[in-house]
């Protein structure tokens, strides 16, 4: 059995190295033959250099799927190299296949959208050896989290390489009345990302988040801890008067297809990253019963990471609004992580996250898309404080420890 596994790993490594070599030849050849168009396709010289370097590292580094076991310097170097390859290989794969198929549109003059779908399918197939190597044995939780986060974070960038074939990324979040090829392809890409993430986590020994709640959940406590998250629906009130007198629910404008895209590409995406791929490894323990300190540290660290994630909004929202969103996200992340470990599922968090992003009880203008006033700043910080306080009360409640323990026992034991 061990021999079969070793032979399979060698075969996968060989296939991966051949892929990296072909990607390297495709990218460098395109850069050599058509320098200016290559820069335009990839958005700059630095981007194409990173992709070429990724392919070269994947080809040259022996046993890319195995961590270094000798000196500390070698371990750090190998981890950094693996992290680079993990982050950027999908982008390099999508880009090279798009470049190979590009003449079918420009010279053979075939219809654009079928070629884009063909490139998408070929790219996903080419990711199979990469995913198997990524999910290979890795004993350290911190490196696991680094690898899975880099994969989840950069995959949308990989998908955007289909722009080379004329795929219009700007159409992804436009309001469409019906499903169209652009939105359909976007949804398929994220569904593949979620399925591959679940596959990697299972290969690492983690179970899937359940659809049903833990049997020991107290529904009174569950309602109590969900209630503070609903306060975030009132965040655009702009004043105490608006908060008290204008509490009519409003859904973000747009057809159902637009709302589905937001739920999948934002709400599900962020919940799978922070309340599954990061929270579960952070909360794993080798103690029985489950370590309370390990569980709470996992909640705290994942909520801080979720908070820092919102710095990506700095360019669009401005400094003041982004800082408020970062501070508010600590409370949101803390209570959603607590709900996840209490119930054993991420899907309540997905529902609550969707409500926060798509529904408000005053207006549909978010405080985070404009300069917040004094009321909004104070209100959102108060809500964050209430969320953290309610989560701590639940964590400290001895009568609810059995529900947490059910989840902790399902999380992989080292």
From TrEMBL:
Its EC number is 3.4.-.-. Coiled coil: none annotated. Keywords: Hydrolase, Membrane, Transmembrane, Transmembrane helix. Residues 255-359 form the CAAX prenyl protease 2/Lysostaphin resistance protein A-like domain. InterPro entries: Rce1/LyrA-like_dom. It comes from the Bacteria. This is CPBP family intramembrane glutamic endopeptidase.
């Amino acid at each position: 059995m061990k021999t079969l596994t070793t032979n399979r790993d060698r075969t996968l490594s060989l296939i991966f190295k051949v892929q990296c070599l072909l990607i390297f030849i495709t990218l460098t050849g395109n850069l050599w033959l058509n320098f200016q168009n290559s820069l335009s396709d990839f958005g700059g010289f630095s981007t194409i250099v990173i992709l070429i370097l990724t392919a070269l590292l994947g080809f040259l580094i022996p046993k890319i799927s195995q961590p270094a076991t000798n000196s500390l310097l070698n371990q750090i170097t190998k981890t950094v190299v693996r992290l680079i390859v993990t982050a950027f290989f999908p982008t390099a794969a999508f880009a090279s296949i798009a470049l190979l198929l590009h003449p079918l549109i420009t010279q053979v003059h075939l219809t654009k959208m079928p070629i884009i779908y063909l490139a998408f399918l070929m790219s996903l197939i080419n990711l199979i050896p990469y995913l198997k190597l990524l999910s290979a044995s890795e004993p350290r939780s911190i490196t696991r989290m680094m690898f899975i986060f880099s994969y989840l974070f950069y995959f949308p960038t990989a998908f955007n390489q289909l722009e080379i074939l004329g795929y219009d990324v700007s159409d992804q979040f436009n309001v469409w009345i019906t499903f169209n090829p652009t939105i359909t392809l976007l949804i398929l890409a994220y569904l593949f990302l979620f399925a591959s993430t679940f596959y990697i986590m299972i290969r690492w020994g983690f179970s899937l988040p359940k659809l049903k709640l833990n049997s020991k959940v107290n529904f009174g406590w569950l309602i109590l801890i969900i209630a503070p998250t609903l306060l975030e629906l009132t965040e655009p009130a702009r004043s105490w008067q608006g908060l008290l007198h204008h509490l009519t629910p409003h859904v973000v404008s747009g057809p159902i297809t637009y709302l589905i895209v937001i739920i999948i590409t934002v709400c599900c995406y962020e919940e799978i990253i922070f309340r599954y791929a990061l929270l579960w490894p952070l909360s794993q323990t080798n103690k029985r019963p489950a370590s309370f300190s390990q569980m709470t540290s996992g909640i705290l660290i994942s909520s801080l990471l979720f908070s820092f994630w919102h710095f990506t909004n700095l360019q669009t929202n401005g400094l003041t609004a982004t800082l408020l969103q970062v501070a508010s996200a600590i409370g949101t992340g803390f209570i959603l992580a607590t709900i996840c470990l209490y119930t054993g599922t991420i899907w309540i968090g997905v529902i609550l996250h969707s409500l926060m992003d798509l529904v408000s009880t005053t207006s549909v203008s978010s405080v985070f898309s404009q300069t917040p006033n004094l009321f909004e700043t104070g209100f959102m910080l108060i809500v964050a404080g209430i969320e953290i306080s309610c989560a701590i009360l639940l964590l400290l409640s001895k009568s609810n420890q059995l529900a947490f323990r059910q989840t902790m026992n399902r999380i992989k034991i080292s």
